Amino acid sequence: MNNKDFINASTVTFTGSQSKYTLTIYDEYSSAVTTGKGSVTATLSDGLYRVIMTYSYSSGGGYTQWHWGFSLYCYFTVDTDAPTITGASLSQTGMLTNDPFTVMSNDGSSGVKNIFMRTPNDNVFRPVNDTYKTVGRGNANGRYTFYATDIAGNKSSYYYVNFDDTVPMVSCENAEFGTNTNGEFTVTASDNSGNVKLYHKKDNAVWETSGASYTVKDTAEEGIYYFYAVDDYGNATSEMWVTVGAELSGEFVKSDTDNSVYFTWDRASWTATLDDKPYTKGAWIRTEGEHTIKLSSNTKSAVYPYKIDHYYVQTMEKPTCTSGGYLQYDCVQCGNKYTDYSIEETGHYYVASTTVATCTNGGYTVYTCTRCGDSYTDNYTNPLGHNYEATYMPATCTDFGKTVFTCQVCGSGYHETDGTYPTGHNYNNEVVTAPTCTVDGLRRSTCESCGHTFDTKISANGHNYNITESSSVNGKTIRTYTCTVCHHSYTQELGDQYEEVTNYVEYLFEQYEPYMWWVLLASAGIWSIVIGVMIAIAHKNEEKEKAKKMLVNYVIGLVVIAVIVVACPFLIRGIAALVT
To answer: Is the pTM of this model over 0.85?
Structure first.
């Protein structure tokens, strides 16, 4: 430490460089406060103190004994009190001023180091680099905030000054200061500090206040109304005035539909007469002629003359081409009317429309009046007749050959064919889409001569299956069939074919066995008739040998028929075996 140190803590501790040193703290009256070896701690009040560090040593004895030692000391000041500020208030609203002001900081111990200030338009504190600060007129209005620090590092509380050197604003709605008015108006005061009082009075009366706004009704007494405003800081405006009822003022308002009027004025306290009779504000005046309105206040009056004429509504009967028109005038107020017959007929105004002659019809001109629609026809002309030109058209696939005669004027025509028959279509066929096993194809036919086309369907080919695999398991046959074109395949389980076919044949014979003998008898009978006829023919022709052979063939035939009937089931079984 040096001799100028300041401490802002009440409890202090000092420590020597070695524990054998003795440290003692003395107050400003040289009284020891505390002492200790190596270090010392003490709780001190504000004031000036001294710290002494000592050391002594003795050695030897008798005449050779010697002593030596040293002592070091320093001064310090304990300062735990914060600075104070004058010229400001600890309350945010405790000091209001519209005059220049100065704040000053004081500190009884270590002394003031600096004052810090925050202006109304700033968010941070800035040092003023002095122990006081003066704020003059023209600076920002609002709240100024201050604090101070001393050399020991103590910081003061916050202090406030509310500064406002701007006079309030006063406005007048529905009137102007320094002028006259007869209507209701409102005067309002405002101030940047937020708090303001508006004072008002009439003529030489006593000033009164009722807040920041005051309204003078249209029923208020006539006179001069004075105003001024004062804010909380003492800033006051100059006096302003508005004269109420200084001049009588009224006006006539005309109707939009006729000449009738009504009379109106601003102030409710005024009265009026119409032709010396009481008149109600806004009542319609409809009677034609001279009228006088007298408007009166408590102190004066004014006269307003007015004349109401006829209000004619005009209707018009328009003239035509052959007769004149007129104007009818009717007064909607009194019913008076008159007519003006000075509008002459307009006469026809014809516009010509010509229809030109065609090959078969004559031409003419129609004249029509654009005003009334009257018309007449004139300037007739004869038909022009056709002007045909021949064109030969040879036969096509579907039409006969012919000569066409076409009128070059109107386009109509005719044709008697030359007898050349149609050539007929000459189609070329083209397969657009080839058929598959399951999908139909498309064939398109196109005529080489005329380009006519039509489409026909090509039916699907269907599958061409071959047996590609066959196996037998437990007497049951399983076959695989594959299409040679698209390679589609499927399998079929056939079962025991021999038994199935044989059983079916036996079933058939069981069903039809009662009829087999009838078949045998019918067959034998037919055979007998045929052989009998042939034998009779042979006897008639004396061919006895031939007759004998026929008789033998007859017997053989009966045996064969019987054998076939009996052996048929066995024959069918054999065929079934071959099939399976």
So the answer is: no
